[in-house]
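Posting here for the record, re: iron/sulfur cluster.
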Amino acid sequence: MAPNGTLPLFVDLRTAPTTRDIASMVKRGGGAVALTEAERRADEASYQDVACRSALNAVRGMPFNWTLNPYRGCTHGCHYCFARRYHTQFELNAGDDFASVILVKRNVVDVLRRELDRPTWTRELVAVGTATDPYQPIEGLYRLTRGCLLALAAGRTPIGLVTKGPMIVRDRDAILDVARAAAATVYMSVPTVDENAWRTLEPGTAHPMQRLRAVRELVDAGIHAGVLMAPVVPGFSSSRAKLERTIKAIADHGARFVGCNVMHLQGGTRSHFMDFLAREFPAMHPRFERLYKSKYPPSEYRKQIQGMVRALQNRYGMTRREDGAARVETLVVKEEAEQVGFAW
Ligand code: SF4
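Prediction output follows.
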């Protein structure tokens, strides 16, 4: 980084490590301390340049076949984040490392352009921001997400983009370019407008109302934007009163749709969340152990939450927002073996 805080003019990506190199450096060096070239910034996070070999990532078993993540790790640091466990792919941990060691794919825009230019590219939908937030604060400096959006527009490729970052309004023009060239939907993640739950569970994110104001700005600009209440966290944001306040606020801000799912816990995310509870909310810990005997809470519990959400969507007109037609995008939570008998 240049002394005045601007980007250096030249970045030699021929010498930047790949994510595989990072994994072996961390493994050999005994942790994130091995990343001696990572730049520590004022937010106390370390940023490590990496050279990616591919930008588009093929996935299976999802409602889309391709994902794109310009960054890995996320300084928003949500305690429930399902992507925490992916950080272990780089031998980094799903706890502090996930929120404080960020891999920056500095060549992602060029690599993406080349991939979109291939004659074999069929212009399938690309899901942006599935493993980390594409509008976490460092995007203000690197503008990699913006570069990717411009490349996707040029490549006439449709997108679905998930974020908690109000910075997205900066890129209204680029999203509109994608929408005109193909299609674009923005999913703003606002699990709850409850202040305590927000402060407790999403320590690095913008205030929920700021996110909803961003939705208003996107919709006013003509962008198809809505809200995902994802996830609803049992005991923190699951009461009817909190769900109602949230859905009312979403409706008041002109969201085109609202979806919802209940938190699931798996792998490193599970251990991080349970450690966080044991440390900060020891009285709640045993209840979560009972509720999360598998990665999802019992289906009976999820149905209760989803039933409340559906009723509130009806009450606040969220099912009739688009052209008078029913328009609710509810995330489908995969059903697992039924375990009933637990109510929070
Ligand atoms: S903003 Fe999204 S990717 Fe970032 S920590 Fe929160 S849930 Fe995870």
